[in-house]
Amino acid sequence: MRNTWLFCQKELRSYFNSPVAYIVLSIFIFITGFFFTSSLFLMGQASMRPLFSLLPVVLLFFVPAITMRLLAEEKRSGSIELLVTLPTRDWEIVLGKFLAAWILSLVGLLLTLFFTFTVTTLGDVDGGETWAGYLGLALLGASFAAIGTWSSSLTRNQIVAFIISLTLIDDLLPVLPMSLAPVLQFLSVSYHFENISRGVLDTRDLIFYVSLTFFMLYLAHNTLESRKWK
């Protein structure tokens, strides 16, 4: 795990030693704050529902934006070959980069606590529902980061990695046959988040996010490892 943490630290430094993290986080908070306050005043009541309805959509673009460079940039610059010559394993590289992206997404979610405190000053807010919602967002961010890590492992182009992430994350229910809707709905990340955001902590939803995250990291590891056979 030491190597994993070293890769995570390296990636976090690359985010915060450049304008990337600050620009992305600023845009994240601005968009969230603008639409949240607008919907809050329209509703005229203190509720976390508008925030929990908005944040998954913002994360849909925010997380792929921070994961698209993870492995794609290493491939483009050729530094991936240097990484693999180090005394480390492929899964440590994948896990370290994933953790860095997930931590950055968690920082973005922590910044939204300001909106939560604002709502609590305006009225009574269900604490259990609020913290369940944030747990769901953290799990959602982890699954998005894992999908983005795999997408980044598939290409050298960051924009292509971003588009692949959006395609995999976004729900395809509207364009698929109705007969497949029940099964595909269960496989939808938004479907499971809706349950958690209502304060219902069902083990099936938690297992879904954990399984999806590990499966995507497994695919990223296999994609990275496949270069040895070329």
N- to C-terminal distance: 28 Å
Strand content: under 5%
Number of strands: 0
The helix content, as a percent range, equals over 70%
Mean pLDDT: 80
Instruction: Count every helix, treating DSSP H or I runs of 4 or more residues as helices.
Output: 12
Give the low-confidence spans: 172-178
Class by helix and strand content?
mainly alpha
Main sheet overview: none
Shape: globular
Radius of gyration: 18 Å
Please provide a written account of the structure.
By secondary structure, the protein is mainly alpha-helical. It has 12 helices and no strands. It has helices spanning 2-16, 19-43, 49-67, 72-77, 79-85, 90-111, 113-122, 127-153, 158-169, 181-186, 189-197, 203-225. The longest helix has 27 residues, at 127-153. Residues 172-178 have low confidence and may be disordered.
Secondary-structure map:
Blueprint: H1 2-16, H2 19-43, H3 49-67, H4 72-77, H5 79-85, H6 90-111, H7 113-122, H8 127-153, H9 158-169, H10 181-186, H11 189-197, H12 203-225
Helix pairs in contact: 1-6, 2-3, 2-6, 3-6, 3-8, 3-9, 6-8, 6-12, 8-9, 8-11, 8-12, 11-12
Summarize the structure.
The chain has 12 helices and no strands.
Descriptors for this entry?
0% strand; 230 residues; globular; mainly alpha; 79% helix
